[in-house]
Amino acid sequence: MDTDNSKFRKTTILIGLAFLALIHTAKAQNMTVTGGPWNVNVNQLTVAGSNYAQAYEDAGNTITHTIPLPLITLGWMRKIHVSYQESNTWHNNLKVFVKRDASTAGTLLCLGCTASGGETYKEVTANNIELYRLAASVGLLNFDFKIKIQLKVEGVSVVLPSKNYSRTLYFTITD
Amino acid sequence: MKCKKRYLYLSMLLAGTAYGQSGNASIFLSLPPVALVAVTPNVEQMSLSFLTPSEAGAPITAATNTSTWLNYSSAILNGSRSITVNINQPIPGVKVTLQAGHATLGGGVLGTPAGKIILSNNPQNLVTGIGGAYTGVGIANGHQLTYSLEIAEYNLLLKTTNQQIIVTYTISN
Prior knowledge:
The complex is a heterodimer of chains A (175) and B (173).
Chain A: H1 2-28, E1 32-35, E2 38-40, E3 55-57, E4 63-68, E5 73-84, E6 95-100, E7 110-111, E8 114-116, E9 122-123, E10 129-139, E11 144-154, E12 164-174
Antiparallel strand pairs in A: 1-4, 3-11, 4-11, 5-10, 5-12, 6-9, 6-11, 7-10, 8-10
Chain B: H1 2-17, E1 22-30, E2 34-40, E3 63-75, E4 81-87, E5 94-100, E6 107-108, E7 112-113, E8 117-118, E9 124-130, E10 133-134, E11 143-151, E12 167-172
């Protein structure tokens, strides 16, 4: 009888832990990217001999990353990477840069919640590069990091073929 | 012991599933066709005057002007553009010639000067092979223009006051 109770208790604990772990995992690895697309507003040329301004920045509020913290947080850390996929809808002279708005991080509801890195522009390539990290020491309440992302494009010029260009950036969250 | 194994399996299972999800964001950029041409400095008039011969039997000396520059901006999907030039009316016995120098500043596929041409009512190529390019703005940018006033036929010359001609530059595909 004692053995049966013990087995039942262990099984219950096991299922409970599995459930909590699944919630933790599902929430911790989730990231939502909202906003966009960013339509680069290239200045119109009116003076013969002139060229476009070669760099353009978005206002810094076009793209937002929402990353939920798990319900119970202990020593949590995640990395956010960025890359693009090669396509013929872009020109290699056009460089894309991304940075994190340094003012968006942390909360009073979470001890040691920090965002680090990515405060200066990093060039996006076809290979994943780490943009920034999120960390939390201890948290007991449901909380979402909301990180604003700023974009920049360089290399705009009349030298490029006149047509429409598009590029998709991929943001990935990992342990 | 069995229970520990289950924990271990569970941990491995969760570790395996705990990898990144992603989201994406798009950037759109539109570069329209551009075809702008201008002569700089933006003078409305320039004067070319023959020099009176100082000695009987000497020819009338040609007059030249090199004070203006041709600036352009060109954005194009493919192919190339040319700049043509023409005047509204010829002057009997006189030829007005124009030559564009080579552009060195700016960027892109700058055009090639066609050489010295005699201006007429018919548009003629002055610069060809312009791709996506910009010359820079203002004097000393783009192609330096050399206008010359030369005698074509002495027997057609008429004593007259100033004759005004209008020079038109056109950039096109």
